[in-house]
Structure formats: structure tokens, C-alpha cells
Amino acid sequence: MAVHNIVVIGASYAGLGTAHYLLRHTIPALEKANTSTKYKLTLISATTHFYHKVGAPRYLASADLIPLSKAFVPITDAFNKYDPDRCELVIGTATALDESKKTIDVSDTYGSGSPKTIAYNTLVLATGSSSESELWSIPGSHEKTIAALEATQSALPSAKTVLIAGGGPAGTETAGEIASLFPHIDTTLLSGADRLLTRLRPAIGAAAESQASALGVKVVHNLRVTSTSPTTPDPHQPTTVHLSDGTSRTVDIYIDATGIRPNTAFLPKHWLTDKNYVITKDTTSLRGPADGVYAIGDVAGYSLGGALDIIDAVRPLCSTIFADLAGPNAGGVKPQGYKQLVKEMQIVPIGPKGGVGVVFGWRVPSFFVWAIKSRDYMVWMVPGVVAGDKFAKA
Hints:
Layout: E1 2-9, H1 13-33, E2 37-45, E3 49-51, H2 56-59, H3 68-71, E4 72-74, H4 76-80, E5 87-91, E6 93-98, E7 103-107, E8 116-119, E9 122-125, E10 129-131, H5 142-155, E11 161-165, H6 169-181, E12 186-190, H7 202-214, E13 218-220, E14 225-229, E15 239-243, E16 248-251, E17 253-256, E18 260-262, E19 293-295, H8 307-326, E20 346-349, E21 355-359, E22 362-364, H9 366-374, H10 382-387
Parallel strand pairs: 1-2, 1-9, 2-5, 9-19, 11-12, 11-17, 12-13
Antiparallel strand pairs: 3-4, 6-7, 7-8, 10-18, 14-15, 15-16, 20-21, 21-22
Helix pairs in contact: 1-8, 6-7
């Protein structure tokens, strides 16, 4: 019997959700539609652990508020429960893709195994994005991110000056966490623009600045970090930051929260946009740049970012895959079509007691921010994300 291998690359929010849904719903439906074909899912993950990076601003500030054991959860057990003939988990980093051969080269992230070449018939790209700092994403081994968080945690109590670059949610939230826990620290936040939270209306950014300033954060606009000495800052050693106005300053701790880049270096260049995101033919089907290739989450050109943009896309994506593979045997089932939420949607804690936010375009009060995110950064979600609880039903 022919075997059709569906390969999902990436095991964060998008990849995990897609893999679970395909295994539970799409593949059983395909095997009923196409009885002469056996379907298998291969999940390629660069790391053995899922990282709930949403909570990074609080993790890096203190080891006591949210234990890192709740932020980093192994993914192996969640996929061991599936039939091994139908599901394979490969721990490794995708390093190259051959479009003509439909193969992916995978290197071992942890240095204990040999490189592999994996063939695919259908490919789902869910590789997400990375940051300059290891605090915000896993650069391969999750152990590096844990080490970066712990180093910052241990350095903060004795620090006198902290400079944070980046006026988006990560930088703004981090400034609030540090200022709340360590009021003795001279905390400076460089927005890098003319206001904080530039993806939201100006009034929200102004409110965030007001709350951060009330905690003692010095917010500076229209100033960027151009380089640092040393190039890779160590929170236990002073860092000199060189600024866009030609000046420099030396601080005890420098935290880079300046944004993300898509994890697409291994893909063919003609599959990518000018900003190196994966081309998607439209925002409805989530079909990618070649037949049998799909993209979801931060890595995809259609994505606006955020948890809902990922979660809401999983079912439509899997329905597109089913329709494409089942073909005339789909029984009239058509792709659901992804309807992207374009209204403002962002919750930004400024310290542990509240913050600012917008939900479906409606501005929400500080206590709402506390209830939804600020009190625990939604770490309670982590076991369910890894186990695929959100997609238990079709």
C-alpha cells in the first residue's frame, strides 16, 4: 500500500496544533476517502520541549513567580500515544530543502545523533520565528534559552541599571516586570519609534507609557541601539550600547526585545517574500508557494501574528489539506476557508497588577488585562497546547 508522508516542520503553537488535528481527524478521514493509500505524519521539531514564550517577561525577572518547569514542557509524551506507524517525531533542525526531490535535510539539535534526510509528499511549514536574544525563542536546544533566562534572573537583584531595546509587547512588558520587582533599578525602555506599541492606536501606547512611567520606567522615543560591546551581552557583565544618535552608554544589563525574523533560511528563495516569510497564495486556503506545500503561523506571509491568528487557522488549514488530498473522494467536503481577524487584538501587562489592551477592537480596562494575562501570563494553557486539547474535536 502506498504511504503518503505529511511532514510538519515546527513544534510550537502552530506546528503542535496542526500535527494533533491532522493525526486525530484529517488522516483518519483521508484513509476512509482513499482506501488504497496509507497516511503518515512526521513532525520535525528543533527541540524536545515546547516553550511558552508569552511569559518570558516574567520568567526573566524572577524564578519565584512562574517556575521554568511550567514554561518548558516535553513534547515527546504527547506524540508517543499515537500509532507509531502513523506518527513519527523527529528531533532536529531543518537545514536544507530539495524542491525537486521533495526532501528535507535535518541535523541533530543536541549533537547526539546523525543527520537525516526526510522525504515528504505534503509539507506544512510551521517553523515560526526567532529573536536576536535567546530569551524570546529557542535557538535550537531549549537548554540555551533556560540558561539565558536564569542568567538574567540571577543578575537582576544586584543590578543598578537596565536598558531594554524595543517598544513592542515584549519590551514594554519586560520593563514593567523589572520595574515592579526591582524599584531600585534605573530601568530605561527605548521604543525605537515615536511611541510604544505601534501596532495599536496611539492612545493605547500613551496609556502603556503612562503606566510604565508610574512604575519608574524611563521611556525614550526615536532612539535605537545600533550595536553593543560585547556583541553578545552577558547580564553578569556591563554592556556598552551604541545608539543611533551617536552616543553610547554603559549599563549593567542590556535586554534586546527588538523583534523577530522568520525561520526560513533552509527554504528556496523563490518560496519567500521580500522579507523572507513563506509566500501564501491567499489568506483563505493557506496554500503555499508550491503544490502540496502549506504555511501557518508566524512564518507565513499572510499572518498578522498572535495566538488567535494561529489557533483559528488550524482547522481551515487541515480542511484544505483534506480537500486537496482526497480530491474527487472528498464527498463534497470543501475547505472551510480561514477568516482572518483584522481588528485590533493585543493584551499587554505592565507589571503584575494590570496593563493595557484591546480585544476585537474594543479597549479593555487594566483589571481585564490582569484577569486574562497579567496574573500568570496564561501559563495554565501550556499542558493543553502540548497535548492538543484545543483540537480534540474536529
